Amino acid sequence: MNVFKMLLSDVREGTIKNRRFIAAPLLALFICMSSHTRVNFYVDSFELGTKPTLFNLLIESFRGSDPLSKIREMHAPIPYMWLSIFIFSMFTVFDYAHDDISNFGMQIISRTGKRASWWHSKCIWSILSGIYYYALFLLTMIVFAAMNGYSVRFNDNVMLSDLLANCSAYYTYKGAETISGTDLLMFILSPLIVICTLNIFQMALSLFIKPLYSFFITLGVLLLSAFVDWLAVFPRSAMMTFSSHYQQNGYSMKTGLVVCAVVIFASAVIGRIWFRRYDILPQKNEV
Predict the structure, then answer these.
(1) Any domain includes 280
(2) Mean pLDDT by 10 residues, the chain (287 residues)
(3) Going by C-beta distance under 8 Å and a sequence separation of 6 or more, which residues neighbour residue 45?
(4) How many domains does the chain have?
(5) How far apart are CA 31 and CA 186, in angstroms?
(6) Does residue 48 lie within any of the structural domains?
(7) Are 217 and 205 within 8 A, CB to CB?
(8) 184 vs 58, 131, 187, 222, 251, CA distance in Å?
(9) Residue 35's closest CA among 53, 63, 55, 61?
(10) Would 7 be classed as within a structural domain?
């Protein structure tokens, strides 16, 4: 069985038939409702001239937070909404690869010996699952925007973006400028890139430890991004209103893209090397 046939099976069993993905539109609806409340407050309070746009709803939904370790206030807001988007994306895929190698995958590898093909299929599948999750999320956001009077375009309403992004208690606000071209593409794709990176990182860890432990370690990386703005903590690149585009010394989305690319590549290569000698036979004491 080649990589393509394995991938088709993975997409069918691990994505299309995976009921956990219903969390994406439900979560998106809840987050859009919460974000709409803040957007609507500014629309009612200021003369903006034009309608809010889909882009405004996007940056509010993925607003993030200041690095909480740098905030002296006792009750600094934890970005629960932002965290939940990535936690649910991790949950949709966290144990599929491990379950597959314990069942159908073990049979395929035992008959064909194609360990590399199995691992390559899982790497591609983890990326496609991230795209599917984010597509469901964005589609729900687009429908919500259309039903609530937004301009369903990714054009930037700069005045509203200026109000939404001027929210940091730690960074120095730079002011909002019109976002277009490559910068606009980075804003749209940064959450997707983070989702895909967390997916493949978590999957690679599950080769070394049990899936539940790999989930919690990956969750730890995600939670760390809410407390620090270190270069290696790539999930911060999906905190849109706290990015370097709006905040002086904020986390750069372009830097995040490079770090994510390194993590994805390293996860795929290390996983492939390790899987060559991975014992696919279940342990006697394994539940």
Answers:
(1) no
(2) 78 89 94 94 86 94 91 76 95 80 57 71 94 97 94 88 90 86 93 97 90 94 94 95 92 95 96 73 42
(3) none
(4) 1
(5) 21
(6) yes
(7) yes
(8) 11, 18, 5, 24, 16
(9) 61
(10) yes
Instruction: Tell the residue number behind the tokens 């746009």, with chain if given.
Output: 53
Q: How many angstroms separate the CA atoms of 164 and 143, rounded? A: 21
Q: How many residues does the chain have?
A: 287
Give the burial class of 50: count Cβ atoms within 10 A of its Cβ; 0-12 exposed, 13-18 middle, 19 or more buried. exposed
Q: What's the CA dihedral at 18, 20, 22, 24 to 10 degrees? A: -120
Q: Which of 176, 205, 142, 231 is nearest to 48 (CA)?
A: 176
Q: What pLDDT score was predicted for residue 112?
A: 54
Range of the domain at 34: 3-69+77-275
Question: 232 is written with which tokens?
Answer: 């290696």
3-state secondary structure of 46: coil
Measured CA to CA, the distance from residue 229 to residue 171 in angstroms comes to 11
Cα separation of 29 and 118, whole Å? 35
Domain membership of residue 282 (yes or no) is: no
Region for residue 98 given its phi and psi (left: phi exceeds 0; alpha: psi -120 to 50; beta: otherwise): alpha
Question: In Å, how far are 12, 63, 172, 192, 246 from 250, measured between CA atoms?
Answer: 40, 13, 9, 20, 8
